[in-house]
Structures
1.
Amino acid sequence: MPEGPEVRRAAVLLDDALAGKPIVSLSTRLKKTLAWLDANGNPFPGRTVERVWSHGKWLVGDVEGGLHFASHFLMWGRWQVVAPDDELAVTRDRRERARIEVPDAVAVLLTAPKFRLLDGSPYAEGGPVAHLGPDALPYDGPEAFDVDAWHDRLLSGAHHERTVGAVLLDQTVVAGIGNYLRAEILHACRLDPWTLVGDLTDRDLACLNREIPRITAYAFAHGGRTIPPEQVERMRGNSALHYGEAREHNLRHWVFRRTNLPCLVCGDTVRQKKQVTRRYEDAEGNLEEKKRPIYFCPTCQNTTVDLPPVRKKKRTPSRRASADA
Ligand SMILES: [Zn+2]
């Protein structure tokens, strides 16, 4: 599932392909966006794409004259850039949700359910990025992470009774962190995912201030990998440290999707457990909970949650063994 680093790579891909070029055509299959085009008479053709960038998990394109396009991948979406004579450009894939054509390239948005068009700032009220917390992946590098803005939101009081594991996924507090980054950040800070925000110490906050932008930037620079090369080599040389064959996708993280394997730091067994990430009332007033699996090392992170006994790693693990529960 794309998180901040993956969305930023898509933004770089589109910026390289589109920026400085006039839009030949822009189209979509999403009903709401079609309605916008109907109401606004599609003002995009003939205007130049100025820049494509991202904030958190939103990708935004600035277009001459104060126009913008914006996409959100949710679970499976992606942008693909091809030549105008490529099969994807010529035949319209059924997964296509939107496309932007410039003279020498076609950018096609596949499966993503969100593609918005707007006239005016994307940060204005109602804009796609208006509600977001500071970006975990600042364009000017990890040291440019807006710690004040993150603390203002985190420590406002509204989140004191929430767990740190839940609040790291809250895009209004800090933007761009998803399930793999939160597990890796909490492990790096030796933090129990069930620690309440109101109980975070100065040491915890100092670590999060540092590790949120550092790990996100590292993942962006290394194709989503969060461990250094020496740990990749260590895993590659020891089949007990990874699932399946020693392939790139199995040798990426400290704890994420390493359930029942040894922690790379202390050797204890990495565990996973579903964690409540959001509580809300449904239409009938019933309290609903949204849960996501969190991966962690009980020893490094000093957790106190109840856990079932460890299941031994299978010799030939099934695909399910390493998949999200
Ligand atoms: Zn450990």
Note: The chain has eight helices and ten strands.
2.
Amino acid sequence: MELERHVLKALPTQRKDQKIVTNTYHPLEEIEAYLQELAASVSWVSVESIGKTFEGRDMWVATLAAPGGTSPKPSVWIDCGIHAREWITPATCVYGLDLLTENYGTDPDVTAFLDKYNVYVLPVHNPDGYYYTWSDDRLWRKNRMQHPGDTCHGVDLNRNFDDGHWGGAGTSDNSCGGTYCGPTGFSELETQAVRDYTNQLYSNNNLTAYFTIHSYGQMWMYAYGWGAEDTPHEQELFRVSETGVTALRSVHDTVYTYGSIYETIYPASGTSIDWSYSRGVVHTYTLELRDEGQNGFLLPADQIIATAEETWTGLIAAIMDI
Ligand SMILES: [Zn+2]
């Protein structure tokens, strides 16, 4: 298959008017301040809290509703940081906001993308956990909830979505486990907020694509995670994934594997992917960003820009190919 290869123009990382430095990791408060500043300075960007966490933090979503194109536009959802220690993912979402807002109207790919879709970005899906990785434990994964009767803190938010297979393969029912799925499906405020908000996008004006970004492993995946069977859309999901990984590789020659979660990484039930696919959003994908384990969750900051450039090139190429 012949694919047009276009590499997004990298932004200089030290610009005079830059609202956030993108080649370093930022604590939660700095990401929140950036989102507010972005909304205050770009007329077609708005920022709203879609819910509160157990510890009372807001879940901020940035909406990019560019002036061009024909409204109403369908929607694209992209979330980062559902697992707290995967720092490259909030950094990649932040880079994307900077890239899209700075290049709209000049870069043809960015402009076509934003003229076609309203883009909703949740840079930190798990703010309590992310905060905790800065304050106490760099390798914390889950949120910080402690349910009555539980020994330990933390539910794995990406095992807490309920598509009918909640609590199945690849989950733990022990609160001290890394993949603890919670006492019930959608027991967590963070999963409830994303469920309700994206359901609203879906019923209002069509949700064309739902992406959730993880690290690490360099993989591009889709449903199912709960079992080995193919979805009825296997060929189409494989095709769009191939578009994404091909475009991604064209930037820095980073190689991704792709396929269903179950076949590509491991069995996992109660993921946002399986849930989002099952509620009707066919083009639902999860990415595992760099690297392949050399640094793992501790990806050096000097790889942020390259990772974000290739990821957004892949994302835009894939979404425009739907
Ligand atoms: Zn993850």
Note: Residues 28-320 form a domain with the Aminopeptidase fold (CATH 3.40.630.10).
3.
Amino acid sequence: MTERTNWFCAEQLTDTIRRIWEPHVHRFFRANLFHVIGKDVDLIVDFGTGLAPLRPFLNIEIGKPVIALATHVHADHIGSFHEFEHRLGHAAEADGFAGMEDAVTLAHLFRQLSKGVEQKPAPSFEQDDYAILPAPLGRVLVENDTVDIGGPSYRVLHLPGHSPGSIGLLDEASGIFFSGDAIYDGTLVDDLPGCDKSAYLATMRRLRDLDISVAYGGHGAPMSRERMSTIAKAYLDAST
Ligand SMILES: [Zn+2]
Ligand SMILES: [Zn+2]
């Protein structure tokens, strides 16, 4: 079942995980974000473009703590990061989150699109004015850190290549894996400023062999372990 407002769409992936997206945003900037209902804490993974306020759409239980975790610093994933108080991201992009300069968020690429949105998020919307508000991290993550929401608990995987501080989150109990833009079922991007193809190759070797049950990527549909491995292998094969 798809839930819809005039800006966001959402679908239930499991009893406790919802995928949310912005259907009217240009497909290059139309990313997935996820709301995980934890036992003690809710976890939000990624934050869309910020063109419309995200937090009111999420219907978070009143008084329940929320952890906001960004998979990486690109504009299509962190526009509404600033709406949340407890912000987590990787150390390699900590300065990026604090400053939100175009050079790291690539927000200027959105401004340059011929038509960034199919319908305006608000009557006053002007594409030329698009900017991301700074959102300094409260907790800086590195490889192997744990993000615990009272069940489930996630291990942080540092997966550089698409961006220096790209991370994935793996729930080793269920095999559910949030992969950000490190890997998704679609055309992968390794030629933007900040991309590092040799780091990406190492990340792809790791993802090819990673034991998961399902991967929820920063774009596209969920991937089985086999599908994720196939995508990683195709990237590796194309690079040799
Ligand atoms: Zn990205
Ligand atoms: Zn993206």
Note: The pocket of zinc ion (ligand 1) is lined by residues 72, 74, 162-163, 181 (CB under 6 Å).
4.
Amino acid sequence: MVKPRMQPKNPEEKREKVNKYQNNSKQNGQPQQRVQISQMTTNRGEAMRAGRRNFETADKAVDRWNVFEKHHEHAVSSVLPVANNRLRVTFLGGLEGIGEKNMMVLEYGDDAIIVDAGFDLSVDLPGVNYAIPATTYLETIKHKIRAYAITHGHMDHIAALPYVYEQYPAPIFCASHFCSEMVEKQFMSINEERGTDLQPERIVLNMDDHERYVLTPNFTIEFLRITHSIPDCSTLVIDTPIGRVVNTGDFRLDPEPLDHHPSDVTRL
Ligand SMILES: [Zn+2]
């Protein structure tokens, strides 16, 4: 059953309500006068309380971050060595959302490879624009790090490279010159900002020719073309003694990309 629309009992009553509302913007029928800033009275106590609230909010945000870091360090102190003939895959970021400091570490025997090293773009702390993956774990395996392999040139995959590379230098593999140049640009930017002179070895593998590179007897890598939202993105294939690991990288499958380079579905 359709209910009849509510009508004011008395049309005059409705008109009165409208007039009452209109009168709110006027005082005695006169337009309300603007208050000059010089005439405003500042409540000093209220301003101080507001300032204190801002600091408390900032402190809480920082504390939340510290809790994560403490937890992380505790977890690292109890890391067991990798057993023989086992592949260990460790994620130092990238599993909780878009723009979240992508970094994956693969270890087998005495070798380790790092896949991507990006900024966390979602950090919301006063005076902090981004964060990098916690490298405490890398410290425990630094003697094994043989290479970085980068899936594509987005900042959440490459931007932390200069900071991580500075502590743990190794060659950087990319699937395209575009990605390699993005990496170079990031190093130049950080060198300029921090007065460093980091010049990593950058190696581009031809993903369209399915170029494979034997990093060590434990790791052989190959990039495959995949479409995403910037040019020349790749999926990384890593062959290990116990099997093949595929890190898809970011992708957005597009059969007709603007650059006319579709995903290498056949190879996949
Ligand atoms: Zn991306």
Note: Residues 152, 154, 228, 250 surround zinc ion (CB under 6 Å).
